[in-house]
Model the fold of this input.
Amino acid sequence: MKQIISLLFLFSVVFGGSYYAKIEPIYKYTIASSAAGEIKHANESQEGKIAKDEIIKIDDELDRANYELLKVVYENLKAIYESKLSIYEKIEAMTTKSQIEKENEKITMLTAKNNMLNAKLQLEELEDRLLKKTIRNDGLYIYKIFVKEGDFVNLGAKLVELHDVSASRLVIYVDKDDIDNIKKKKILVNGKPNLYKIDKAFMVADSEFISNYRVELVGPAVKKFSEIAVIEILKEGK
Done:
């Protein structure tokens, strides 16, 4: 396949102004695990379809139990802080209390506040971990699910590859003559103008195709991706 792609690239350069590119989804995403755990659900039946339901779920039973417990702890610490704050505000306003007594109450109040904020932070971190244990991306095309039910995954393990098929992308490598003022030139895709627009045009030669420049075009969604498109770059004034 790599040889075929290289041949297509060389062919496009020889003819100058005409290039070939595979029509790809505008964006591709690989979702990796943000938490370790056992795969409780992997909806492999959704592969090759637009995501509508839960795709993957990592075991979160212990985290959910800890979350409910921590919610109670946080609410108690919040009530303690509010009580200490009220006491401090009253004492601070009293002329009969010494500065030392006021400072002691302030320290007590600030300690209660710190305990409450620490519990809140732990609660938010746990909530975020719970959210990351369920993979759901409505509207994206499920290209590949890498795990099965019962698998154990570590942090960073690949879970699923998703494609945004709401639009398409073409990548071509053009010669020096075509890269000059390319945004002012008319571009035809399969003989049709105005279907695609330039998203990125690199003014530094590509690291692999060292005498050519990478150009990315974006356009509408297509019924069938991965087909080869012919791109023509017309000279200015044509």
